[in-house]
Every structure is written in C-alpha cells, then in structure tokens.
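Appendix B.2, paired examples.
Example (i):
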Amino acid sequence: MNNENETITLDDENVYNKVLLDDLLLQNHIDEFRTEFLTMHTYEQSEYFEDSEDEIRQRIFEVLSPEEVANFFDQLEIDEEEYEALFDTMNASYASHVLEDMSYDNAVDIMNNLSKQKIVSLLTLMNKDDAKEIKALLHYEEDTAGGIMTTEYISLKATMPVKEALMHVKEQAPDAETIYVIFAVNDDKQLVGVLSLRDLIIAENDAYIEDIMSERVISANVADDQEDVAQKMRDYDFIAMPVVDYQDHLLGIITIDDILDVIDEEASEDYSRLAGVSDVDATNDSVTKTALKRLPWLIILTFLGMITATILGSFEDTLSQVALLAAFIPIISGMSGNSGTQSLAVSVRNISTGEIDEQSKFKVALRETGSGFLSGLVCAAILLMIIIVLYQQPILGLIVASSLTIAMTVGTLVGSMIPLVMNKLNIDPAVASGPFITTINDIVSMLIYFGLATSFMSYLL
C-alpha cells in the first residue's frame, strides 16, 4: 500500500470494501468474494449487508451457506419493518436454516418482527429440536427477562464429579453462548449454584461440583422487566445471569451482549420521550412518517399552549396598562422551562439508574427546589439591575425579579416531582418529556408573573 493510501480512514476503507465486494458479486467472481467477505469480522459483514441493495442481498444468499449468513445475522440491526420484506426475498427453507444456526435469542428477536403465518411456516421447516427451543422463547414478552434470554448455556448437576463435568462442558461448549459461567442444578433442574470455568479447571478431579460451586446465586425471574435485569447485571458486574421461573427452575441465561443492547434501546427510548418524539433512531423514514411520529405530542402541547394563551388573554387589561410587561414574558417562561427540564433530566436519570428510593425522594425534591431558588435569585438580581439601568423602572424590576425567582423555584420542583409521581404510578418517568414540563411551567410562570403584576399595578402606574 502506498503512502497516499496509508492514511485511509475506517469509513473510506468500508466504502472501498463495499465497492470491491459489489464488483466481485456482480461480475460473478464467487470464490474471490467469499475469500474477501469471510475474512471480515461478522460486524463488518452485517454492516455491508445492511448497506446493500436488494439485488446484492439476493446474491449474498446465493453464494453463502445458511450458517455463514447466520453468523452475521446475529449482529444485524435493521428497522423492524424491514425484516418482513427481507424474509419475503429469501427461500423459506434457506431462511429456516439461517434461523436454526443463529443464537436462539437473536433468532427470536428477528421472528418477533415477522407475521404469524411466516413464523409458523419457518418453524415447520426447522429441525424439531431447534424449533422447540425457539417456540419456547417466542412465548415470552419481548421486554422481559424471558424475551432476551437464551437457552444455549452450560449447566451441570451439583452431584457430578469434576472429571466428568469437564467432559460434559467440552461437549456443550460448541453450542453455548458463553462457557465462562457455569450453573449447577439439582435433579429437578432447579438452580442451586454457580461456578466459573476457572473454578472447574483448577479443582481436583475427585471433587464434586457442589464442593466448588457458590450457593449464593443472583438470578432474574423470567417475568422481570429487561431494564431491571440490566440494572442488576450492571450492579453486580456479571457477564451472564441465570433466568428462573417461580419455582427456581433454570430456564436460560442473559449474556452481557444482550444487556448492552437493552441499555442502548432503553436509553434511546428515554431520549425519544424526553424529546417528545416516538422514535429518534429511524433515519430512513419518509417526511410523512416522521411527521406522524411527532404529531401526537405536538397536538397535546398545542392544546396545553392554548391554556397559556387563555391566561395571557385574561390579563389583557394589565398588559394594556403596562405594555412593557410583555417584553419579559419570554425570559420568565423560558427560564422556568429550562430549570424544570434540568431538574427533570436529573430525576429521570436517578430513577433509571436506581440511585433513588422512597427515603431519598423528599431529599431529592428539596435539593432540586433549593437549587432552583438559588439559581432564580442570582438570575433575578442580574435582571433587576438591567431593568433599573435600561428602563429606570425599579418596581417593574422587582416584579420581574420576584416572578423569575418563584417561577424557577416552582419549575425545578415540578421537574423533579412529576417523574417521581409517574414512577410511583408505574408509568415510565421519561413520558414527562422536556416539552411537556416546559409547557406546564409556562402556564405556572405566567400565572405567577401576571398575578404579581396585577397585585402591584397601582405602584407600576
């Protein structure tokens, strides 16, 4: 490679590879394509597939085996609506073999985006054992521990000798999602212990699994919310967590790669709701589809905005007598909304990370309110001096400054309390979106501002 090409960026390299691979496929250089493609990391393979047109994708299916496609389908990330169309272009028998060769949990994630008719057809064409495992996982809700777990794990009987266990691990390893964490069960398949691969390797051959395992096992119930499971795995630094039913039967495991996907998904969902939209990830949506996703919140906010307009209309006499009052409406409503949004972000984060409990809710609300009051005082003092210097209106300055202080104090209180109340009612606190909090604070701040201005109107005149 010459010096000019040595500075090539990763993006440029990916474009170069795509052009090369496309040419090899279209010119029917199958062996060269396979050599180039199969030396790429599976993530790069999935990226190439995602960026390819339908014609190229169809050619990929023709030149790669189901197992080779399954390797990068495990990392495939396309819009949910695309899967139905994608599987329409695949031969049903070929598609069923691809799903068989994938990790069961990833195969289920894809099948959850297909029509029931297609799911039934694919299951019918699958190997019976694989179909049975996938059917079992399809029954669980998508956002639960059962929905993200895999049944490809290594388990050993607690009464098994170490020497026999090592052979057993070797037999199960090719199909297991992870071999570093091993779970011990009793004769009824109930979870009774956990051990690492290291524990097993360094143990004496004549020892038993129950002698080297840890009996204190942290597990997830099959019905637990995926966000709660992610938080628990983060707290304990697990690379895998067992999933059990209400009688402690071991049903599957959740691995760290699935939890990273959950964390990314939940963060994206919370960000979307804080922004007042339903989905910030869909970059390929049409103008109409994008507008339809955003309209529900905007319509709600329009009606809430009418309340603000009604409040302003009810204080028409006050505004007509002192027109200068209108100049400070954006400052007071904006600062109240901004402080409320800041407080909202802190509360939502504390709730999502589990850093807040029943005892600390009052403390958090008090801290946020105090912060809003101090911030309001500082901003109000600056604004008071500006009004006195520019307009020579000390009474107006005091009214504006007082309104700003009260509005920012109330704004931070509202921003911190609404997510806590929603969480108490088992509603996602991120629903208390930034635009929603801002509009509520607009209403409150206008009532405070014009209420004070009307009360001291005689001094203003």
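Example (ii):
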Amino acid sequence: MPDPVPLYGPAYKRDPYPLYRRMREAGPVHRVEFPSGIHAWLVTGYQAAHAALNDPRLGKNHALGNANWRRLASIMPEPQHSALQVHLLHQDPPKHTSMRRLVLDAFAPRRVESLRPRFQQLADALVDELPETGGADLVAGFAAHYPFRVLAEVIGLPAELAARFDRDWGKVVQPVGPQDPGRPAYEARLRGLQTYIADVVDRKRADRAAPGWTATEDLLGRLVEAHDAGELSRAELDSMVFQLLVAGQEPVTNQITTMVVTLLRHPDQLARLRDSLLGSSPDTPRDSPRDSSPDRPGHDPGTLARAVEELLRHDAAFELTTWRFLAEDDDLFGTTVPAGDSVIVSLCAANRDEARFPDADRLDLDRTPNAHLAFGHGIHYCPGAALARAELQVALATLLTRLPGLRPSPEPGEGLDELGWIPAVLARGVDRLPVAYDRRA
C-alpha cells in the first residue's frame, strides 16, 4: 500500500491546488493523511467526485466506520462525541430523509429571497461600523459577524441568545488529539457549546408555549417540536442545533474571505465587477451610491450571480466533504477500499478539473455553464445553498460598492502572502483579512 499523501501544513492550506492537480493526473483515488495520523481515501476529479457523491454504497453514518477509523477519527472527546454528531451530515436514508425535511422550509429559495432586504440591512450596519478611511480587518469587522446575524434571523434565534454565542465554539470542528496541549481548551469549548445548546432548546420550548406561536418562521422551535413529538431523539435535536449554529455560519464566513482574497489577487476583475455593480463603465468616476442592490437600474442582476458562482468554484470554503464509508470491501474507481475506511471527496479538486472546466485555474467571472460542486451533490446537497448564495451576493456587492479602492493592506506582515489560513481539515478560509480602502461610502 502506498504511503499516504499528507493533507496538512501551512503550505498546503495556503494553496492546495498544485497538489490536487498532481493527484488528479495520477488517478481518481488516493490514500491521504490528516493531522493526528487520521487516514482516508480521497476522491479527486470532477467525474469521480460527482459519481461518489451520488453512490448509494457510500454511507455517512459513523456506525459504518471500522474500529481503526473510530480510534483515530473521533475528534470530539467522549462521551460528548456521539451527542453532537448525529446530525444530517452523518445520517443515511430513511433517517436522513425525515431529518432533512424538517429544515427545508426555512431555507426555501422563495423565503430566502423575501429576506434579502433584511440581509442588506445587516450587511450595511456592519460596514457602517468600519473606519471611515484607511482600512480594517474584514474578518473581525464583517465576515465573522454577518453570516451569524443572518442565520439568527432565519432560524429564529432570539437576540439575547445570539448575543451570547461565542464564535470560538466553532473551533470544535478542528481536530485536537488527546495528547495535544490544547485539548483542555478544546473540551472547555465543547462544554460551553453544549450548555448554550441546552439553553437554546429550553428557550424555544418556552416560546412554543406562548400564544400565537407558529413553526413557519421558527426553525429552532420546529426542531424542538419534532423532538417533543418523538420525531427526534435528544442527541439528534442537539446535533441539528449544533449543525445550524456552526455549519450554518462558518462556511459562509470562510467563503467571504476566500472570495475577497481571490478578487484582491485579481484587481482588474475586482474593478470590473465593482463597475458592473455600480452600473458604470471603467471610465466612470467611482463614487459608489448607498444602494448596492443587484436589481438597481443599470445593473445586470446576472453579473453578480455569475461572479459568485465562479468564486465558489475557484476556491470553495468547503474544501473536502465529511466521511463516507463502504459497508464491505469494494472497488472505488479501480482502487479496492476496505469496509469502514473513510472516503472523502475533494470538492476543490473537482472544481479545478480541466476535463470539466476549460482553463480551470483561471478566474472567469462570466463562466457559464458553471456546474461546480461547492455545495456538494446528491441527497447530501447543502440544504442551505440558496441562503448561502444570497448572503454571499449581498456581502460581496456591499463590500465592493461601499469600500471604494478596496485593496490588500500595505502594512508590513499583512499582505496577501502573509495571510494565516485556518488549520481546519475540511475548510478553507483566513482568520484575518487586513485591507485598505479610500473611504467608507
């Protein structure tokens, strides 16, 4: 058996695409290693990834993992591990089908579009708090807060509970081995998050008892209702709340950063997109109006949508899928994979496959068609994709039009090459994004 390819380290996290290219050229399946010695089989290439995401042999339930996988991959300490890990990402039909049905109405495209003006208000409020001139850290000042504020509105998280949420709790998805010096802090985060989830459940149960409550606009209340009716176990309820609070915001935060970083590395395309959003030509003075709505006069609403799709393809925040397993030894694209070994699909590698996307490493904001896999595919396609797209469109348009002259920070140690990429196994993004701009419009 070949030595596993390491998928970790600063160089890899900064730019994994050359490695993905070499792996695609060598074949569709590779044995890889993650931090803490976790091994998996990685699927690369668009055709293979698409097939794997739709392969009924590949189950998501952790019970399918073999003893060796469970020994290495339980990144959450027991007994908490099972208590927050039985959400949608780790379920198979029919349980997956019934659990997914509970969340679809809240994230339906029609409802998301009805909330877009509110998303714009939330984005503008955050930009209003940035310095008027000079520059700012777009993670601390915008990306770390905007997706959570949107999410709180969409799922029915009360303002006082939203104010208590500690973004540091999201780090529980980053592996910390049992012997790691950071393990005590990791476990403290997990306990804090579990206490918070219990408080959310208690509050929503009280809300449901109030006169006039309806499930239509209150996803959290609907989940508590499903638990009380016997549709969800308490572990499933807590896991779904956990998934909403962490997976429902962190990928969007990270995607905002990867999109802005990509545009800062392509200033000509940034300027072209901004001019399009303002309904102007490159020669028009860039005096951005307050209204950055994509339906304003002179603006092609498809321009922003196409740009966001291409930025998702070019550098997706959800780099790798979560684990999948074969129930028995079987062939996977010419490689025999043992039962219970973890199989992971590289969405980023698939989205840069030249066989599917001509000139795949080139950023083309007008690329069409653009059938990328940034939100997955098949029955585990991201149920919040419509919400994420709306958030990203509003965020990008707001930052580009309200921060004229947006550019990388000129300060020493804060350039694009010095950015610190988060060490999460599955995700891409930066933890700081210092930028400069002429003024806050």
